[in-house]
Structure formats: structure tokens, C-alpha cells
Model the fold of this input.
Amino acid sequence: MDILDLSLALFVSKLLGEGFVRLKQMAVLGELFAGILFSLIMTYLPTIHLYYFGHLFTYKVHLFGEAFDFFADMGIILLLFVAGMETNIGDLKKSGKRGLYTASLGVTLPFVLGALFSFKMLHFSARQSLVAGSIFTATSVGVTVRALMDLKQLRSTAGLTVITAAVIDDVIGIMVMTFVLGTESFGTLIIGFSIFIFILFILAWGPVESMMRFSHEKMHSPYAIVSIAIAFGLLIAVLAREVGLAPITGAYFAGLLLSRTREKKIISNPIKNITYAVFVPIFFVKVGSLFDFRMFKSVDIKYFLFIPLAFIGKFIGCGTGAKLSGVDWKDAIRVGVGMMPEMEVASVIVTYAYSQHIFSNVIGSQMVSVTILYIVTSATLVPLLLKILFPRQIEQSKVNM
Done:
């Protein structure tokens, strides 16, 4: 019933998104709350049995099938792909120093706070404490990028700093994960990342522009250039994954390379339309659906302190890093808030630590619950805070709804 799940998710996410837009909020909040609503339905409503003309129709909402996961994964990849195409490389170069300062402190402070709290207050072992600290290090920029796009602030000082910092943050976060979980050697990761950057450097010198020009001038099948562009984005996402980085980092760099081509305007709008119409809503519904109200019955209240510690660590670390790099206080605060969301790396670390028995069953189940609660809370809270911090934003266009 994956197809029915997808249909219902699109209907409900767009209806709630419309409701939030009419309340002068961002559509992404409606998509997130649609996921939370589906979580309630999955938890408490029974299976539907419907008889018609001698046939039995059985259905229960279940948002974790292969088709639904595919659409959700495509949503975050295409979102970062579009963000890359809408980023000006010249502006990105200028924000390199800001991104480095922001990412460095934004990883260090949450890691230290989480590890110390685990070791001193929860009496974890040294390795468990390091793993717990690493859970809340890497920012998931998808939520913030969507909010900044809705607010027309992606190319602002704060927006570019967040994008640059998130790319660096991803590399540092993966390195931290590699160290504490022991999945790969540090040297292997450095070699892989170097190969990735070298390939991008070669592609930037001409092959990408030639590919887009050939697609536009020589290919006559409908939307050929759009298909080629998406295929290229997915290919670079796979390359990033193979060298140990997040696929969304590869998608962002692919979009960045395409942003330099003359055909950018031809491919940007069609990809943006399909991304926001279908894939991105499914991704945010998926995020919201991770929220499980039953977690409140079993989690030790002390574990909930990870949530404010992670928020404080990200906000102060990233905000201070941005301020030290030369931005004003207002933009530093915006950067601190924009770097709060976490998703992929956090969920990977906590589930891997649980499955490999680094955490015991009791500790592991509570850490998974708290991590999911942080993911959903940050994904919901950050768009609201960014809207407050950008009071003069241009009203979002209907394309983004």
C-alpha cells in the first residue's frame, strides 16, 4: 500500500501546508505536522477492513515502505541540489572563512557538552560518552535550506554562512563519527574526500558546461536537459556516498557546478517545481512521522536534558563562530538558529551504536527516542524561529507551497 501512503501524504501535507500559509507561516510546518498526524494514526488507529462486492480491502497507514523511503530520500537530495543551483559561487567563496569558524565551534561545543553530560551525569563509559557526544554534532541543513528558500534569504549573509558551514560541518561530523564508531580509518576518509574534491575540480573546468550545452542544443527529446541534469546530480550524490560523505553533500556540489552554466535557468524551474510539488513534502512528512508519543512512557527524564544541551551547543557554538568570523550579531543569531537541525548523521550514529551493542538495550532505546525527539523538535522549531528573525521577508511564492 505504499502508493496509497504516498497519495494520502501528499494530500494531507499540502492541505496542512495551505493552512499554515494562510496563517502567514511557512508551508514546511504543515508538512512536518502532517507527519506527526500520521504518527498518531499509525500508533493508535486500528487496521481498516472494507468489504465491497465480495472483496476485502485491508489498509493501515504505514510510512516506512520502500516506495515511501525512496520518495523521501529523493526529496532531501533534490532539495540540496536545487539549493546548489541557487547559490552564487562568488558569494560562497566570500563566506568560506565564516563557514569554517561556524562549523568548527558548532561541532566542538555540542560534542563536549554531550560527552561530559553522559560521563558525569548518566555514568556512561568513556566510549559510550564519546558516541553520545557525537550524535548531536552534524547539522542537517535540509530544514534550514527549505525555510531560507521560503523566506527568500538563501543568498543572505546568514544563508550563505549556514550553507558553507553545513558543508564543512558534514565533513567534520563524518570524521567524528568515523573516529568514535571505528567504521573507517581517518586516512581512508581523507583520501576519499580528496578524490571527491579532485573530481569536482576536473568537472568544473569544462565537462559540465559541455554536457549541458550538448543536451540543450543537440538533444530534441522533451525535457532531455532536465533529465540529464538530475542524472548528474544523482551521480555526484552517489560519488559522495562512496567516499564516506552524505549524499546530500554531493547533490549540493552538483547543483553548484550547474549554477555556473548558461543553461541554469532552463533546468532550474522544472526541477524546482517537481521537487517542491512531490518529493520535498514526502521528505518532511517522513521526518514528522518519526515522532512517537509512546516514548514519553519509557524514557528516563534525565535523558531529555540532551535536547536543551544540543540546542545550546549548536546555537552558541555556531553563533559564536559566525560572530568571530566577522558577521554582525543579528546574522550570528540567525546562523546559530539555522544550524540547529540534525537528522541523517544523528540517526545513523545512534542506531548503529544500538545495533552494535555500544549502548545496552536500556540505554540504546532511550537514546534513540531522545534523538528522534530532537530531530522532530528542531525541524519544527527552526522554521518558526527563522521567520521571526527575518521579519521583512518577501512573501513566499505559490511555487514553493
Confidence is low (pLDDT under 50) at residues 393-401. Residues 361-389 form the longest helix (29 residues).
